[in-house]
Design brief:
Layout (H helix, E strand, L loop, with lengths): L2 H19 L5 H6 L5 H4 L2 H24 L8 H31 L12 H7 L6 H4 L4 E8 L4 E8 L2 E6 L7 E6 H8 L5 H6 L4 E4 L4 H7 L28 E6 L9 H15 L3 E6 L28 H10 L2 E5 L9 H8 L10 E2 L6 E2 L10 E8 L10 H13 L3 E9 L11 H21 L4 H8 L5 H15 L13
Parallel strand pairs: 1-4, 6-7, 6-8, 8-11, 11-12
Antiparallel strand pairs: 1-2, 2-3, 4-5, 9-10
Helix pairs in contact: 1-4, 4-5, 11-15, 15-16
This protein binds flavin mononucleotide (FMN).
Flavin mononucleotide binds next to helix 11.
Length: 497
């Protein structure tokens, strides 16, 4: 009785193993090809996947051939039922899951990229090549206006982690790409770097181009989501509970004008938030002021307590500083610290503290007493932008200085630190969503500082996440600087990524 199933399994085994060994398409190929467009089903990768699955099925049929012959019961009717069921088991528990999940797994492997011969093929494959991790939350319409060999208009919609492709024109696309079809095919196949081609004006991108930052990865099933994770909180930021924050003073130590400064990009939003919550804000651009450097004579601590020998704008700024409920220190990161301008300003704040030493009996910590304790507790917030995408080993010097200012001065309380890494690229169109995250976080922090006298760490963390991995950052930064190398100053013409 076992003869019939044994013959069937033998035939199935031979078919499964012989066809791929002879270089013919395996039977699984004919079963699965109907579910995919030709661009995918005719690719080498698709054939490779089916060959492997076919070998796995050959193994399963060989196992079934053995299992169907085992006697599980002395009663022949029972035995036939059990032996057939046992032979079916590997087909269900191994064969079916392998056929479904193996292609998905295989397409994530490094050597599994599918090459396309035409844009028609590439478009037809897009709905099948979605990388769900990168497509999460994406809701865009990308209109293509291709010229050259495959001239034509069509658009793709990426939504709910799915992609559809339609011939024609969409009435309200998120982004529009105007490119030569051959160039776009080369970009799709990974032969040409899309960012580089764009910076070299080889194609045009209009509308909201943020999607292009991850476009390649959305259609690369092998891409892994890697980004520098949000930083855990490592400092005990203070809350000002003794008084309402009404007056804020901003000291901006940056060299650049507002429209180019990434430090200001944050500060402006913080100020807007604080103002919307009812605070008065006064701002000083230190580089525009004539501030003498500290001579280290200690006259402000000895002969003329609280008074500096230099009678410059600092007399007024010190008063503004000490009377404010909240001080904002804003400085770009220059050689791992604040700018020289900001450092000179900080040095000249010496008169507002007294030379004596306060000892905290509880923790043994030592600090300087406040010279103007009548103004009570005061909060301060730090803003800094850097070129590098990392925070540790980059902001340590600047961070250390302000943390020491917090711990060594009576009544000075650090309420928050905002470090913006990889700051130069943030103004680029492709970083629109990151820019919004940063600006919203700074605005909300300004509101909260005024209303509650504290700043939640989540705002600082949102700012400090560059949202890009170091490899992508390196590529983009290098391409960006290469376009300016030996040409115009940064502040005149900025190529848009
Ligand atoms: C003199 C100088 C020194 C710099 N040093 C560093 C540094 O140590 N680390 C860093 O990540 N970026 C450094 N940068 C890059 C700046 O921090 C970056 O361009 C930042 O966006 C400038 O801030 P801003 O846009 O507010 O002017 C430096 C830039 C200059 C001009």
């Amino acid at each position: 009785m076992e003869l019939i199933p044994m013959t069937i399994y033998t035939v199935l085994f031979v078919v499964a193993i012989v066809l791929p060994l002879l270089g013919k398409k395996p039977f699984t190929y004919y079963v699965s090809k109907g579910a995919y467009p030709k661009a995918i089903s005719q690719s080498d990768v698709f054939l490779r996947i089916n060959n492997i699955i076919s070998f796995i099925w050959a193994g399963i049929f060989a196992t079934a051939f053995v299992l169907v012959q085992i006697r599980y019961s002395p009663y022949s009717a029972d035995n036939m039922l059990i032996s057939n069921a046992m032979a079916f088991l590997p087909q269900f528990i191994i064969g079916i899951p392998v056929s479904i999940y193996f292609p998905v797994w295989y397409l994530k492997q490094p050597n599994s990229k599918i090459r396309f011969d035409s844009m028609k093929d590439a478009f037809s494959a897009m709905p099948y090549g979605i990388n769900k991790e990168f497509a999460q939350g994406v809701d865009v319409v990308v209109q293509f206006e291709l010229s050259g060999d495959e001239a034509g208009e069509s658009y793709i919609i990426i939504k709910d982690q799915k992609c559809t492709h339609t011939i024609g024109r969409h009435e309200n696309p998120t982004a529009t790409i105007q490119a030569d079809s051959k160039l776009w095919l080369d970009i799709t196949n990974g032969d040409v770097d899309g960012t580089y081609a764009f910076l070299n004006k080889q194609y045009k991108l209009s509308g909201d181009g943020s999607i292009m930052l991850n476009f390649e990865k959305i259609f690369d099933t092998r891409a892994k989501f890697e980004t520098i994770a949000n930083r855990p909180q490592d400092y005990d930021y203070k809350t000002i509970s003794s008084k309402q924050i009404k007056n804020i003073v901003v000291f901006d130590g940056g060299a650049r004008a507002k429209k180019f400064s990434k430090t200001t990009l944050m500060v402006d939003k913080f100020v807007a938030g604080a103002k919307s919550a009812g605070a008065n804000v006064e701002e000083f651009k230190l580089s525009k002021l004539d501030i003498h450097r500290c001579d280290g004579c200690y006259m402000c601590w000895t002969k003329t307590p609280g008074q500096c020998v230099h009678k410059d704008i600092m007399t007024e700024l010190r008063e503004k500083y000490r009377k404010a409920d909240l001080v904002v220190f804003a400085s770009p990161l220059y050689i791992f610290n604040v700018t020289g301008t900001m450092k000179t300003f900080m040095d000249r704040l010496l008169p507002i503290i007294q030379p004596y030493m306060l000892l905290d009996e509880k923790d043994g910590h030592i600090s300087h007493p406040d010279r103007f304790p009548q103004h009570g507790e005061q909060g301060f917030v730090v803003f800094s932008a850097s070129g590098f995408p990392d925070i540790d080993n980059n902001f340590d010097g600047l961070k250390g200085m302000y943390r020491a200012w917090d711990s060594h001065n009576e009544n000075s309380n650090m309420m928050g630190e905002f470090f913006l890494p990889a700051a130069e690229v943030i103004v680029q169109p492709v970083y629109k969503s990151r820019r919004e995250i940063v600006q919203n976080a700074c605005f909300d922090a300004g509101v909260q500082a005024v209303k509650e006298g504290k700043i939640d760490y989540k705002y600082m963390s949102a700012v400090s996440n560059p949202q890009v991995n170091n490899k992508t950052f390196q590529n983009q930064a290098n391409l960006f600087w290469a376009t300016l190398d030996g040409k115009s100053p940064y502040t005149k013409e900025v190529p848009k990524i």
